[in-house]
Amino acid sequence: MIRHVAALAMLLGIANPVQGSVAQAADAPYAPLTIPLHIEQVPNAPVWYSIGNPGIPGKDNEGNTSNAGFVVTSDGVAVFDALGTPSLGWALLQQIEKTTGKPVRYVIASHYHADHVYGLQAFKDHTAALIVAQEQAGDYKVNEETADERAEQRLDQRRGVLFPWVDEKTRVVPPDIAFKERMTIALGDRRLTLLFAGPAHSSSDMMMMVEPDGVLFAGDIVQNGRIPFMNSDDVSTTHWLKALDEVEKLHPKFIIPGHGVASTRAAEAIAFTRDYIQYVRDAMAKAVRDWTDFDAAYAQADWSKYKDMPAFASNNRGNAYRIYLELEQSQFKGDKK
Ligand SMILES: [Zn+2]
To answer: For residues 60 and 91, is the Cβ–Cβ distance under 8 A?
Structure first.
């Protein structure tokens, strides 16, 4: 009977006071959200994920534009990414509490971009979890010149567009554990393999494979049905394409991208990202070869295949420009050899 009551409480989403370590929603320490998280479970696996809204962070989506997830093992929970505000991180923590009474052991950050890491604050302040990231993530705060985003500038921007969910108390929480190429976490009955895949979308890109389930959290290396953001100094589309080949070799049974739709058809999600990068590269490569200036090249290119997709307006032109520069630079290097 007691077991039934506990099961019912879980079904109803009532936190178990014995196992629960997180305060109730009424005590929410961050500005409340009006749009609930969209949570789904991977079929036949103890893995749940939150799917963000398409588009870029703003008041309309309350900053919920990225995906995140968590793995429930026999020895606690591992979280992958923490969403784009402390409020969203808190909502994810509440969801974990509803799903299982087990403590959060690790929070793994796919890369240090605002839309994935501002939620770390909720985990740092309300759990004993260790935050894990690839070692380049450490650049995010200490070396703003080489960081993917100017951390302070980005925080100011988000305090403007995402207030009250990002406010003067919001801070970027650094990793507790950093790894270089690969790290395996044996947690209860699950094995989590963290793989460095950058620099591609950012300097610190990594992916997490959950075994034996074959579920891959791909971070922003894979984006499905949404135009990825590539306009930063650390983007290397050459490495990015190689990283996509690596993802494919893992033969994931289920893929959860950093943005966009999760899928059992991993190959399709990978192909979407690869096709987009290749398409922009081809368009810009011709321009670089012909010494066409960027504005003319951009105007001449046919964008009809992508122009109606989420984040096209905000990301595509910058992406094309970044790729133009990358190709121009590699042509210059090639010429010197
Ligand atoms: Zn992202």
So the answer is: no
